[in-house]
Amino acid sequence: NPGTELVCETAASLAAASILFQNSNPTYAAELIEHAEALYAFGDSHRGLYSDSISNAAAFYRSWSGYQDELTWAAAWLYRATGKAAWLTKAEAEYQNLGNQAGTSVKSYKWTLAWDDKSFGCYVLMAMLEPSSSSYKSDAQRWLDYWSVGYNGDRITYTPGGLAWLDTWGALRYSANTAFAAFVYADNVADPSGRYSSFAASQINYMLGNNPDSRSYLCGFGNNPPINPHHRTAHGAWSNNLQGPPVNSRHVLYGALVGGPNASDEYTDDRGNYITNEVALDYNAGFQGALARMYLDNGGFIDPNFPQPEQPSITEFYAEVKINASGPHFTEPAIWASNRSAFPARSIDDMSARYFIDISEGIAAGYGPQDYLITRNGGGSLVVSDLLPWDAANHIYYVEVLYDGIPIYPGGASEYHKEAQIRISLPTSAPASAWDPTNDWSYQGLSSSLNEAPRIPVYSNGLLLGGIEPPKGDLQSYLVWTQNHFSSEQLANPAIVGPEANPDGDPFSNL
């Protein structure tokens, strides 16, 4: 099961990293080189496409360019890291086998440095390592000329706004990678009349806002940046639906470069369009290097207010409730414990919900809490309590529904919430006056439609996650006061019922 691309690209990465540690930690640098050389030996001796060995990768990340570019690339990096002449000899030999432009006898120049093809990086790196060799310089400048001023009258497509546009899918990544390589070549080999550094700067500036829409293509930066990149975790959806809910992403994916516009500078910030809004490591790799290079020329500053702490814009833990049935002696709510967390997303397997009732009328009719019957529909791991006291002096009790051992997590339509159907009742022989749900804390705002019910709080291991518990004290007076001061729509809003609202002084805020 060979994978020459994988092991040689990893060898190149380790060799490059070793350069950073040669002075500060030479022992570690030597270890990186040891492994890089061992990996290269394996990839060279056992040649084969990694996507043949890892078949799942073939559908999306097939090795279209083969492994010849990685063999050359890694050997060049190993020479740069070690100075061993054998590695330069190896790089020179493998370089000769890099592909030519179709119908020509020269190296390819109408594509660019990307995750699959390192050939263009090899041109630049070899020109740096052997500045006296004209062939590497010619290959590099033919490619960079094609992207900038043109080569033999042939030039890459440019959008009307000035983007060097190679391909529909993720156009900005190709331009960003080329810009980075152009900066490296300009600084280390040649920059005729400043053409390569000017080209590179123009491409990065386009991405940051110098374009027909005057918009940034970098998430969280500049004017009108993308807010809906094709990125599951930034989206923060709970129903496993690409387009929501929520419609807009809940997190800002700071610093991610999106795919970008079409050849006419047209762009839509659509999460479902991976052509324009995908983000990926290879999109940011060269772009990040080009930004660092531009900082050397232009300077910059650290924003002391970055990043701003994120806050949930919607309730993360709550109960959705509807009344399935009701009668002169019972109320039957369906309670869905819901978890649409994203700050961070987490799975909870001990969620519970509490339904609060006022049994004052039952007490007046001669019934006690022990006379209330609690039943549930369905099986599973649901645990439903008896009537439990909350504020017994004022006859406030609750039923707790425990979703014991049932993972509730924002992973899909059936995973982010779980249902429990319960019935709270008195014996059918009780008089009608003994049953009145309208003064129950949790009954307020409920209907036969499923809606968020803030007065049915939810918990994890007994700790309040969301919703509003009834105050303990003179609840009946409090309910009368709130119903006289607020509409039913306001009462359904958890931010209203409490001293925060305080329309003309809340005499019960101490409760």
Write a concise synopsis of the structure shown.
The protein has 16 helices and eleven strands.
Number of strands: 11
Describe the main β-sheet briefly: 6 strands, antiparallel
Q: What is the share of helical residues?
A: 25-40%
Radius of gyration: 33 Å
Strand content: 5-15%
Number of helices: 16
Spell the H/E element sequence. Answer: HHHHHHHHHHHHHEEEHEEEEEEEEHH
What is the straight-line distance between the termini? 70 Å
Contiguous low-pLDDT stretches (5 residues minimum) are: 498-504
What average pLDDT do the residues reach? 93
Shape: elongated
Structural class: alpha+beta
Topology of helices and strands:
Layout (H helix, E strand, L loop, with lengths): L3 H18 L4 H20 L4 H4 L1 H7 L6 H15 L2 H11 L23 H11 L4 H14 L23 H18 L6 H14 L23 H4 L38 H4 L3 H18 L18 E11 L2 E10 L11 E8 L1 H5 L8 E5 L4 E3 L3 E4 L4 E8 L13 E9 L25 E2 L5 E3 L2 E4 L8 H11 L2 H4 L20
Antiparallel strand pairs: 1-2, 1-9, 2-8, 3-7, 3-10, 4-8, 5-7, 6-7, 10-11
What does this entry look like structurally?
With 511 residues, the protein is of the alpha+beta class. It has helices spanning 4-21, 26-45, 50-53, 55-61, 68-82, 85-95, 119-129, 134-147, 171-188, 195-208, 232-235, 274-277, 281-298, 360-364, 475-485, 488-491, and strands at 317-327, 330-339, 351-358, 373-377, 382-384, 388-391, 396-403, 417-425, 451-452, 458-460, 463-466. The protein is elongated and about 105 Å long. 35% of the residues lie in helices and 13% in strands. Strands 3, 5, 6, 7, 10 and 11 form a six-stranded antiparallel sheet that branches. A five-stranded antiparallel sheet has the order 4-8-2-1-9, with no helix packed on it. The longest helix is centred in the first third of the chain and has 20 residues, at 26-45. It is built from 16 helices and eleven strands.
